[in-house]
Design a protein that fits this description.
This protein is about 60% helix and about 5% strand. The protein has about 500 residues and is of the alpha/beta class.
Length: about 500
């Protein structure tokens, strides 16, 4: 039996099975109930791909070092992943997702860069065949082939795109992490972030990318400097593109960067001539773009507006002073809930910060025990990443059937006794219905249609949009000024004593 190569039916069959598992896993991520299973299926798909590649390296004489590196990387990555999964709090999950996106971009960039360097060295000093053209074994034992075929235009274009997209994803994701973690404030990092400079960086990067292609088959040294310049320019471009974007738009940015990481991986698949990587990268890239479109629709804004304009809080912020605001207490909230037959809970980032999801579920369980109907209204951009609230509530074992998206539940507020808004702001602001408002046209939860609205919030400070929330002044609105977890915990105690 000969050595198992990348073209062996066993390996190709494993890659086909892995691709199908990736498709099945991603399809299941579209629903809350099946998302956990989808994640496990996708993880299994990755395991199959890694094992298949390991088998190829194991049976290939002279590649023991590569196998050791692969095995060590899998072991180290598994340990790091396990530690992060257990230690990272749910409030820090958006930052972790941003880092994951960045690492995906970095991997694609480095692989493509390494392949360009290897190909450049082969062009310069590789052995030449009888026809006078350079020949190479290629990666993963492809056999001796004409270099013009192995490293043709498709290879160069794919490698350049992989570096360009991967580097932008890496630096942009690091900036997104810094903004989400509160480590980067403002819309500039020195001159980076100025739109004219971004345009110059983009144009220069495209020009340098073209120079890589022209210089690749010519002077190897020129090609080397062009590659270095491309990496540096695209890293700066990633910073410049993301740093001006405000925190309110981070859910869109994260989903877009996720798409970028998939597109970079797809390009790297063409570099390595690996069909599985092409399929998996395409799936991630396409799903990320679809999710980005959904998030933009949820804010009634175009992607261009998110990336290049942002929410101009000063344009329509209006008077920030509040009048007629009525405050309440946890004890009064308990009495209001005691008479309620239907309750809707609207979670927001404040719930995540306070880690109040378990207390909210405890309160919901008490209410349901007394015959009250309890549901959760989930706005698509609540939190700091897509699906943030769904993940938080799932962690607290909230039944999937209690979670309702905006379109499903918005018409039911008028038939609801009490709506409890926990740490949300912009997603339930009536200003969205006012022409000229900074969030005009943004779909919001019509919580004010309920008989009573109780907003659990530390203060009257504005949300990320930076504008006044007129909900706080409504006649049927009560403000419970406190930490979300402490307020709900006290309400649970008071409700249990009634």
């Amino acid at each position: 039996m000969g050595a198992i190569t990348m073209e062996s039916p066993l390996i190709q069959g494993a890659y086909m099975a892995s691709a199908l598992l990736f498709i099945l896993g991603i399809s299941r991520l579209g629903r809350v109930r099946s998302a956990r299973a989808g994640n496990r299926i996708a993880a299994l798909a990755m395991l199959v791909a890694v094992v298949a590649t390991t088998i190829v390296l194991w049976g290939d004489a002279g590649r023991e070092t590569l196998w050791a590196v692969l095995a060590g990387g899998v072991a180290l990555g598994s340990v790091i992943g396990l530690v992060l999964a257990r230690r990272v709090a749910m409030t820090a999950m958006p930052e972790l997702v941003a880092l994951f996106n960045g690492l995906g971009g970095a991997a694609s960039m480095l692989v493509a860069w390494a392949e360009l360097e290897r190909a450049r060295g082969t062009w310069a000093s590789g052995p030449r065949g009888a026809d006078g053209l350079v020949v190479s074994e290629g990666l993963f034992g492809l056999g001796t082939v004409n270099l013009a075929t192995l490293y043709g235009p498709l290879f160069v274009v794919a490698a350049v795109l992989s570096i360009l997209i991967g580097a932008v994803t890496l630096s942009g994701s690091l900036v997104a992490y810094g903004k989400l973690a509160g480590k980067i404030r403002g819309a500039r990092l020195g001159p980076l972030g100025i739109r004219p400079l971004n345009a110059v960086l983009l144009a220069t990067a495209v020009a340098v990318a073209g120079a890589v292609g022209f210089a690749f088959a010519g002077d190897p040294e020129t090609a080397a400097w062009a590659i270095y310049a491309l990496v540096g320019l695209t890293l700066l471009l990633g910073i410049g593109l993301v740093v001006p974007i405000g925190g309110a738009d981070m859910p869109v940015v994260i989903s877009l960067l996720n798409s970028y990481s998939g597109l970079a991986a797809c390009s790297t698949g063409f570099v390595l001539q690996n069909n599985l990587l092409i399929v998996a990268g395409s799936l991630v890239g396409a799903s990320g773009l679809i999710l980005t479109k959904i998030m933009c629709r949820a804010m009634n804004r175009s992607l261009a507006n998110v990336l290049f304009a942002g929410i101009d809080a000063g344009s329509a912020g209006g008077d920030q002073e509040y009048t007629g605001v009525k405050s309440t207490s946890a004890a009064e909230l308990a009495m209001v809930l005691d008479a309620a037959q239907s309750v809707i809970i609207v979670p927001g980032y404040g719930l995540a910060v306070a880690q109040a999801q378990h207390k909210v579920q405890e309160l919901a369980t008490l209410l349901e025990g007394r015959g009250c109907e309890v549901r959760y209204a989930i706005h698509p951009v609540a939190g700091r990443m897509p699906g943030h609230m769904n993940v938080l509530l799932a962690e607290a074992s909230v039944p999937y059937e209690r979670l309702f998206e905006l379109d499903e539940i918005n018409g039911d507020f008028k038939n609801t006794d009490v709506t409890i808004v926990v740490g949300a702001n912009d997603v339930c602001n009536p200003a969205a219905y006012e022409e000229g408002s900074a969030i005009a046209g943004m779909p919001v939860l019509d919580v004010w249609d309920s008989r009573t609205v109780v907003v659990v919030k530390r203060s009257l400070s504005p949300g990320y949009a930076g504008i006044k929330n007129e909900l706080f002044e409504r006649d049927n609105a009560l403000m419970l000024f406190d930490d979300a977890r402490a307020a709900i915990e006290e309400a649970v105690s008071e409700f249990g004593d009634l």
